[in-house]
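Minutes, project check-in
Item: structure for the 173-residue chain
Input as provided by the requester:
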Amino acid sequence: MSSTSGDGRDRDTEGRARNARPRDGLGRPLPYGTDGVERQPEGVVRTPEETVAEAQALLTAGKPFHAHEVFEDAWKSGPEAERSLWRGLAQLAVGLTHTARGNLTGGARLLRRGAGVVEEWGADSGRSRPHGLDLAGLGAWATELAREVERDGRPVDAGERAPLLRGGTPGRP
């Protein structure tokens, strides 16, 4: 729940600045009073299985901005040893968000950064499929998408280009 403070900024119940404007599926603010996409609640502690399942559903629905918030919760609440894994996954989701919004340079940069983080985490931990995640496949997906948007110079459809977090082919998790 939010309210407006004396400085005109939206605030949450603890008084922190929190934009209450509705958002579209890519997280872009819409005018007040417009119907938007329901926001992901912040600070939710989920199991890794719940995190992956919820993030995959959001990615498949073309809502990578919202998937990034799920990964961010895991990054902030999960074990220290996995924080960079979840941060890298959040970067991949934000990279997809930016490429869908048309920020191709920033999107490609975030996709490559996220790919590097998840691949490095896998190599350092010795775990190539933590929680069933296909780290090599995600790195390859992100690198190829970054190349594609730089080559073609066009935004992508986030739902059509969503990665399968556990690998496989579209429609087959």
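Outcome recorded: The chain has five helices and two strands.
No further action items on this chain.
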